[in-house]
Specification:
By secondary structure, this protein is an alpha/beta fold. Helix content is 39%, strand content 17%. The chain has ten helices and ten strands. It has helices spanning 49-58, 71-81, 98-103, 107-118, 141-158, 170-180, 195-203, 220-228, 258-269, 273-288, and strands at residues 8-9, 31-36, 40-41, 61-67, 87-91, 123-132, 161-167, 186-188, 207-210, 234-236. Strand 8, helix 7 (195-203) and strand 9 (207-210) form a beta-alpha-beta unit. It is globular and about 50 Å long. The protein starts with 7 loop residues before the first strand and ends with a helix. It binds zinc ion. Zinc ion binds at residues 35, 37, 67, 128, 239.
């Protein structure tokens, strides 16, 4: 396989602190980072996936689901996961990629590649797919929906999880899942809904994966959603290199920062860190077949 350490570079600087935050205190009960993008270089001194996984293991983050967003990064995810037991892969065309692919007449070919990758042994989810009404305007929405439906079908046919990206499209995502039938293991990545959506989604048996956003000052609505989410439906993730949790918000994010978010989740749920870590790890095992 090809083994470039990075496939992409994160360009945004806007004056933020480009140094990696220090290692947090290690968790005693290990967890997984259920959504990360280690193929993206970030910071002044980027950490490649091996360094990332080493640092993560040193603080009790046992492994990561490495997520692709297009053909190239999905292939990298599948190939890299096949070489390291600390990594599983998710493969998909991002909802904001789909309209551009469709406009060039390349969507079906790209979906065929995703379908092939989804059949590989270490690929345990189709994602991130879904709907994004924030970045994609009216003219791209038909292609985005067609791509989402195709990804749902691929996940069901391969019997693996679905990782959903839902940005400002809660109603349409819900409508689509109920209309075409959700895969048995469906995960809302970087959950951004309110308590109502959390209740509805978990009543259907879907998982909600919380990222560093839940630690942000202005995220009281998200914390309300967390309070009504049963522990049996809860996952934790970074979405690194984006969305570093408080108190290191804005700096490069990394799987080794999961303990910060896990502890914040436990505080909101009013339970101890170990009990919550054990619950989210059991959920990660059920959703992605880590064990
Ligand atoms: Zn992501």
């Amino acid at each position: 396989m090809t083994d470039p350490s990075f496939v992409r570079q994160r360009h945004v600087t806007d004056g933020r602190d480009l140094t990696y935050p220090p290692l947090p205190e290690a968790l005693t009960v290990p967890v997984y980072d259920n959504h990360t993008h280690l193929e993206i270089a970030d910071g002044e001194q980027p950490l490649d996936y091996r360094e990332q996984l080493d640092r993560a293991s040193s603080v009790g983050v046992r492994g990561v689901v490495q997520v692709g967003n297009d053909v190239e990064t999905s292939r990298w995810s599948a190939e890299t996961a096949a070489t390291d037991p600390r990594m599983l892969a998710a493969v998909a065309l991002h909802p904001n990629e789909a309209p551009a692919l469709a406009a060039r007449g390349e969507l079906d070919d790209a979906l065929a590649v995703i379908d092939e990758l989804a059949g590989r042994r270490r690929v345990r989810a189709v994602g991130e797919t879904g709907l994004d009404h924030y970045r994609t305007g009216e003219d791209g929405r038909a292609a985005q929906l067609r791509s989402f439906e195709a990804h749902i079908e691929i996940a069901k046919r391969h019997g693996i999880a679905l990782q959903i990206h839902d940005r400002d499209a809660h109603g349409a995502v819900l409508e689509t899942l109920l209309r075409v039938g959700a895969p048995e293991r469906t995960v809302f990545h970087c959950f951004s809904g309110d308590a109502g959506l959390a209740k509805l989604a978990t009543d259907h048996g879907w998982y909600l994966s919380f990222a560093g956003t839940v630690t942000f000052k202005n995220a009281e609505g998200l914390r309300e959603a967390l309070r009504v989410t049963p522990r049996s439906r809860l996952l934790v993730e970074t979405d690194a290199p984006w969305l570093a949790p408080a108190p290191v918000r804005g700096r490069p994010n990394a799987p080794y920062l999961v303990p910060l978010t896990l502890r914040a989740l436990a505080a909101v749920k009013g339970c101890d860190d170990d009990a919550l870590a054990a619950a989210v790890t059991a959920n990660a095992n059920r959703a992605f077949g880590w064990a």
